[in-house]
From TrEMBL:
GO molecular function (one): DNA binding
Organism: Hydnum rufescens UP504
Presence of keyword DNA-binding: yes
GO biological process: DNA integration; DNA recombination
Keywords: DNA recombination, DNA-binding
InterPro entries xrefs: DNA_brk_join_enz, Integrase-like_cat_sf, Integrase_recombinase_N, Phage_Integrase-like_Recomb
Protein name, UniProt field: Tyr recombinase domain-containing protein
Amino acid sequence: MQSDGLFTIVPVPPSQGHPSTRRSGFHHNLFRPHVKAADRIFCWTSPAVLMARARLLEASPGLALSLAKVQSVASKAWEGSTQTTYGAGLARWAEWCDDNGIPEQDRMPIEKVHLTCFIADAAGTIGVSGFKNWLNGLRAWHHFHQMPWCGDDPYIHLLLEGAKKMTPKASVHEPRPPITLSHLYAIYEQMNFQDTYDAACWAVLCAAFWGLARLGELTVPSRAGFIQGWHVARGTVINWEDVLGVQSVALRLPWTKTACNGANLILTREEDCSCPYRAIQQHFLTNSSLPDQAHFFAFRTAAGWEPMVKRDLMDRCQQIWSAAGIRDLPSGHSFRIGGTTHLLSRGTHPQVVQKLGRWSSDAFFLYWRNTQLIIPRHVHDAGVQAHMDAEMNSYFGEVSPEVLQRWKVIQSERQKLKRGNGPSRVR
């Protein structure tokens, strides 16, 4: 809990770790207390912020408690990892201000001239994503403290476009390689499914690949990092379905990176050793009798149970891949990328993949790999379908309008099914 003498700030959820001990180029003071990077948005202020609060409390002293609650609610707007990333932007801004002698009263709200100079000085030394993270952090900082933000000015966008063209080659990262079935097969060969840890590992990996999930949504950051109600637990709602011979399981994730209210992870049975449906069943069989409050992917130990830690899981995978001679070892996010690429490559409709992966924006397209396999497949299929439609329309041109209309309705329903929208009732 941090207090600046006017409001008590209670970041929620609490960030983990300790205040950064990295040697930085900025000075701590009343406005920049020594706190964790994730808490800088909330705890760093400026003379303008303190004066605005003082005026408000002087006019309405009875609102002190309510205003503290307002900040507590606002602090929930960002995830802990996002807060940490944004905190780095605030640190860089503080360093630049110290280096250029910017007085405290001009550091927030930021003047347009100062922001343009800040961007220009960094141009050519950092990539576009770095710029965006810095500015997003500064924007969040201003919004949290209800200060005016000049970063949406057209001239700022013009500067960012120019800086984008000056991005150093060293800052341009190759796209993360996707996990493939070959990666999963290499791990499968080393798994002992009677071992509680192996069974849990395999369930996570298959669920992440076929369910297009982020590993951070299925695992925990540390052995002590499992938070009930934040990470998926054994007591979560699980639906096992068998519709027209198609088996699937859906489980409720209480939190995802883009949905604070949670989302459903849907896993369909596959005729493959990496089938997520059977992997979940095996995990439940090997790790039976765990309490509802245990981590969903927890494994039994002599002392009880432990949650599945992301870093430990990835270390195990990379050890296996290295021993198998696999180069360019993927990262945890590569499971989501690989699952997306695999489903698209085998002809799954892009809208179905987008829905399965819980994307609501065009960020979905950033996950496409092997586009030379994906795009021609769908273009070809569309061409074949168009040819078949033309042939059928020619045939039905000789029958009654009622039959032709019926055919069009059936075709419309067929397209809905391909898009994953589900059929309507056809009479």
